[in-house]
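[step 3/7] fold_predict: job queued, chain A
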Amino acid sequence: MTKILIATTNEGKFVEIKSFLSDLPVKFVSLNDLKTKYREPVENQPTLEGNAILKAKYYAEKTRLISLTDDGGLFIETLNGWPGVKSARVANSKTKRNELVLAKLKGISWKKRTAEFRAVLAIYDPQIKDLHLTYGETAGHILEKPINSDNGFGYDPIFYVDKRNMAYAEMSIVKKNSCSHRGKALARMKYFLQKQYS
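[step 4/7] structure written:
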């Protein structure tokens, strides 16, 4: 059975991705499952694509495993796309990142709190030097205060999906995967994996 590394130490993200791809004839492992602990690469690319590719190639070459990575960002229209590519790095905890976004949007009306989540998935096979990318995006609004829920991670407590009338943090994994930016990119990646490794 083909083994694929989902190259993340974020347990919430690993569970979400593995859950979406679980019916494929593939064994998925995370960085936490590996005996060797690898230092994270510096994500210094100016685009989501660049960072996803950088991580996929880095972990594939280190582990010799087919590696699946993602890079995602929250792009807030009224803040000229900020935090964008730097979404995961604007503060050192989920709570602080959410607080920072809400502080920047203080006093901004609901109509102008539009945002878009974007994701890029990259998979790299180090044996045949093959790279494949998929994309997804979801439009919504930034709430005025976070949803109090144990669901989700990152900006999920403050990102409201207009088409579902609920925040990411209010959704089960299955519901979130059916409409999220990562879920859309995963659906396209799953199609590729089915063709490639079934």
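[step 5/7] annotate
The beta strands are 2-6, 26-30, 66-76, 83-84, 114-125, 130-142, 159-161, 166-167.
The helical segments are 11-21, 48-63, 94-104, 173-179, 181-197.
exit 0
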